[in-house]
């Protein structure tokens, strides 16, 4: 089959003929109709990820049709239109991912290919209201955002939510899920244009985190503080988030886009009894609950653009520059 291969750090992806992987017991083969990028793919290309393997077929997100099943898998699955849960080997606990957990696309080959062979338990039906491109945009970012908002921060209807860096793929899902769950949502962005776009979607207020006084601005908008804060930056602004949290507030962080190595005054955490929660992708139960919410509320992922997979290196550059508003989707044109 054909696939886009990353042969080494800092190299472009190269269209390559790779061996087919027949489904082993418990596996299925999915012929991919669309795939989507995550910032993680760019960091893997740049050698800036905690697990690396080259050569590798990257890509965690995909949607397609089951074309073959391994021993022990119901042959009735053949022809099923599916999305793929990219979190493999989560383990038995819902509290944290076990040591064997890893997302598709490193170290195991991923979705920037004609086909992928994965355990049948990773599949969910494609939501009926989503076309291939929107379905492929959902899995990794949707799962991560759902766990952060619903499972970790346990957002309740009527609560005030702040989401930082709203232009990010995970951040936009966090916004959509928080709105669907009845939250009153606020956001930060470096882009006034992106801020205006999310206000049109239902975000009540915004602030530009590149401008002095952004935290003061938010404090004026929500004097009582935020019940839930979702952050993927963990940069110098993190202390402001602690100050902006309401008494009993929950701050869930899911990445370190702005570094992660910060100085912190914990006294307001103590005084206000704030919870700071790490969150990592999500369990199979989170995935099923996320897909159910998407189906129940007919949520449509925000897609910045759809590109042919032959333009994969241009797509990586767009994500690297952070220019997009929503997911970059790739359709196979081998
Ligand atoms: N925990 C997990 O399992 C998990 C899963 C997926 C992703 N992640 C992590 O989550 C983060 C986002 O991933 P993604 O795929 O959504 O990336 P992405 O789509 O590339 O998001 C990039 C966005 O981050 C925002 N940002 C950049 N610097 C910021 C800062 N200093 N403060 C606040 N926001 C800032 C920007 O938003 P504006 O354009 O609005 O300024 C930018 O558009 C990454 O750190 C990634 O590693 C973690």
Topology, number of strands: 17
Outline: globular
Report the sheet-strand fraction: 25-35%
Given the structure, what is the number of helices?
A: 10
CATH topology of the largest domain: Quinone Oxidoreductase, Chain A, domain 1
Could you give me the name of the CATH homologous superfamily of the largest domain? Medium-chain alcohol dehydrogenases, catalytic domain
Determine the mean pLDDT. 97
Low-pLDDT ranges: none
Structural class: alpha/beta
Order of helices and strands: EEEHEEEEEEHHEHEHEHEHEHEHEHE
CATH class of the largest domain: Alpha Beta
CATH-level-2 architecture of the largest domain: Alpha-Beta Complex
Helix content: 25-40%
What is the alpha-carbon Rg in Å?
Answer: 20 Å
Task: Report the major sheet.
Answer: 7 strands, mixed
The distinct ligands, each listed once, are: NADP nicotinamide-adenine-dinucleotide phosphate
The overall number of domains is 2
**End-to-end gap:** 10 Å
Write the layout of secondary structure elements.
Elements: E1 2-5, E2 14-17, E3 27-36, H1 39-45, E4 61-69, E5 81-84, E6 87-88, E7 102-103, E8 115-119, E9 123-125, H2 132-136, H3 139-152, E10 160-163, H4 169-180, E11 184-189, H5 192-201, E12 205-208, H6 214-221, E13 226-231, H7 238-244, E14 245-253, H8 267-272, E15 275-278, H9 284-296, E16 303-308, H10 312-321, E17 327-331
Parallel strand pairs: 10-11, 10-13, 11-12, 13-14, 14-15, 16-17
Antiparallel strand pairs: 1-2, 3-4, 3-8, 3-17, 4-5, 5-9, 6-7
Helix pairs in contact: 3-4, 3-9
The structure holds NADP nicotinamide-adenine-dinucleotide phosphate.
């Amino acid at each position: 089959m054909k696939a886009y291969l990353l042969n080494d750090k800092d190299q472009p992806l190269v269209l390559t003929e790779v061996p087919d992987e027949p489904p082993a017991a418990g596996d299925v083969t999915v012929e991919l109709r669309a795939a989507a990028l995550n910032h993680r793919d760019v960091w893997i290309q740049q050698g800036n990820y905690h697990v690396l393997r080259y050569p590798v077929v990257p890509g965690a997100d995909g949607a397609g049709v089951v074309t073959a099943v391994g021993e022990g898998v119901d042959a009735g699955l053949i022809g099923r239109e599916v999305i793929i849960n990219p979190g493999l080997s989560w383990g038995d606990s819902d509290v944290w991912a076990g040591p064997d957990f890893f997302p598709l696309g490193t170290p195991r080959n991923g979705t920037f290919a004609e086909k992928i062979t994965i355990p049948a338990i990773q599949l969910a039906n494609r939501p009926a209201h989503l076309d291939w491109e929107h379905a492929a945009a959902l899995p990794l970012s949707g799962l991560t955002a759902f766990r952060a908002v619903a499972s970790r921060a346990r957002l309740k209807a009527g609560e005030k939510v702040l989401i930082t860096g709203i232009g990010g793929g995970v951040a936009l899902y966090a916004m959509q899920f928080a709105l669907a769950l009845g939250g009153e949502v606020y956001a930060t962005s470096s882009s006034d244009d992106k801020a205006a776009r999310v206000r049109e979607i239902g975000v009540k207020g915004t602030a530009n985190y590149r401008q002095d006084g952004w935290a003061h601005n938010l404090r004026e908008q929500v004097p009582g503080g935020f019940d839930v804060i979702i952050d993927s930056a963990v940069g110098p602004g993190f202390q402001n988030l602690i100050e902006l949290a309401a008494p009993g507030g929950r701050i869930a962080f899911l990445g370190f886009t702005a570094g992660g190595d910060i100085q912190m005054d914990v006294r307001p955490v103590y005084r206000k009894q704030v919870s700071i929660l790490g969150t990592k992708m999500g369990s199979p139960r989170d995935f099923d609950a996320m897909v159910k919410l998407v189906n129940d509320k007919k949520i449509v992922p925000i897609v910045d653009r759809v590109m042919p997979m032959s333009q994969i290196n241009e797509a990586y550059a767009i994500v690297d520059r952070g220019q997009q508003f929503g997911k970059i989707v790739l359709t196979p044109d081998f």
